[in-house]
Fold:
Amino acid sequence: MRNSDVVIIGGGIIGCSTAWQLAKKGKSVIILERNDVLSGAAGATDGVVGYHTKKPGQQMELAIQSIRMFDTLEEELGEPIEYGKCAGGMQPVEDKMQWDILSGIVEEQCRSGVDIRMISAEEARRIEPQLSENIYGALYSPTGGKINPLKLTLAYFHAAKRLGAEFIGRSEVTGFVIEDGVCKGVRTRDEEYRAGAVVNCCGAWAGKVAALAGLSLPIRPRKGQLAVTEPVGPFMKATIQCARYNVIKFRPETITDENILRYGSSLSIEQQEDGAMIIGGTREFADYEEENTFAAIDTMIKRAARFFPLLENVSVIRFFSGFRPYTPDGMPLLGPVSRLPGFYMAAGHEGDGIALSPVTGKLMAEYIADGKPTYNIDAFSPDRFLSEPSA
Amino acid sequence: MDDIIICRCREVTRSEIIAAIRDGAVTVDGVKRRTHAGMGLCQGKTCGRLIERLIAQETGINPAEIRPQKSRMPVRPVRISSFGGENSDAEQ
Ligand SMILES: Cc1cc2nc3c(=O)[nH]c(=O)nc-3n(C[C@H](O)[C@H](O)[C@H](O)COP(=O)(O)OP(=O)(O)OC[C@H]3O[C@@H](n4cnc5c(N)ncnc54)[C@H](O)[C@@H]3O)c2cc1C
Ligand code: FES
Structure:
């Protein structure tokens, strides 16, 4: 049997960020990870850190807290994370209908005081000259940035370990230790780990892990497929999604084409530091099936060429996929579960987990170490999905 | 000896790969995500096996248990223009 102040289940970006913040507060932390630190979504993702993809309201307010932290994160972590504000974030719009929908969402988003605007096609092409002439306009967020998600996850991981956190890979949590209705620890195949607090940071698998503790929480995997091109010269600076990305995320009811809904096919595209373009954009419910499918790849590659005609001559060299932790209301589950003292959730960030990782770790550590976070996150309480315990 | 190049496409040395394994990588993907070995034009066709062998050697994990890279569709690079064609969903 092993003892620590806190056990973190899942060593993805959220688990590593939380471990680092807890270690900074002097807590002894053990991270139990089924595979390796980058084996979940953080190993298969884009790195958009911007406001314009955030749901207006509470999620936006949380993002503002989080994105502010990126300014000093690299220095605090002591490793390069390639944070750049570059040319902002942009969503080229195809027609008047998309324009109207996005304009409505932007208006709501701007109530939080962020700088997101609708701009003309000419302005958009001035910022990104490779954009097709055949667009109606664009959403533009000049402060939108990007990060290297692999480096950021590893930086949290290394910083946590330097402060004494212990990372145990190849250790799948298979059960919980629950005594008198209180969560006292977890079990893996060959060890029992006891702790004052257990945090479920299992991303798209968090629902399955919560079920091991008898909790039914609606977190499901939402698959995203990605393609990587050969490296090319400087091609684009902004992180770009087509407008349909926000339409699908916030107004899915306005989409009538079933294929678009099934694959959630919109485009996301950015150029990495090494020159490779990462093309992605599907949002599918396909259980945990990680294979790439031709139909999904085909629609997203076609959309890449539709918005950036010059890409036609570039070659794709690799495909992969990742699982976003989906929740029904698009917001993560953060904080304790009233029904099971000792058990905390920090999962369900869907497509925002990289951007929300700094603040998630910070607030979770405050909750656990100080009993109360410095910023009220009651709206994110896992309790919203749990009806009253049946006696 | 430690400085021989294992991944020729991305010029990743043996010592860099060993460092990634000591950092916790237990799969070819784990090494790849830490060092970029295997992300070059040949997509690990040359270096993948060598990396598997180094993982086995360093960790004592049975080579048969080391997960190969995740599958990826193109056997060789494919031009973006060769996708789709008819009924493109672009113009609607
Ligand atoms: C295609 C795609 C694009 C994205 N783009 C962006 C973006 O641009 N910006 C952004 O902010 N976010 C983006 N995201 C979302 C982001 O990647 C996720 O929200 C984030 O990575 C979730 O992190 P996590 O730590 O919660 O989950 P994960 O990284 O998935 O980590 C969960 C970990 O738990 C482990 N685990 C599971 N079960 C167990 C168990 N029983 N015992 C022990 N360990 C277990 C897993 O092995 C895994 O390592 C994208 C996601 C995808 C798929
Ligand atoms: S030799 Fe490693 S990718 Fe080609």
Notes: The pocket of FE2/S2 (inorganic) cluster (ligand 2) is lined by residues B 7-10, 37-38, 40, 42-44, 46-47 (CB under 6 Å). Chain B touches chain A through 29 residues (CB under 8 Å).
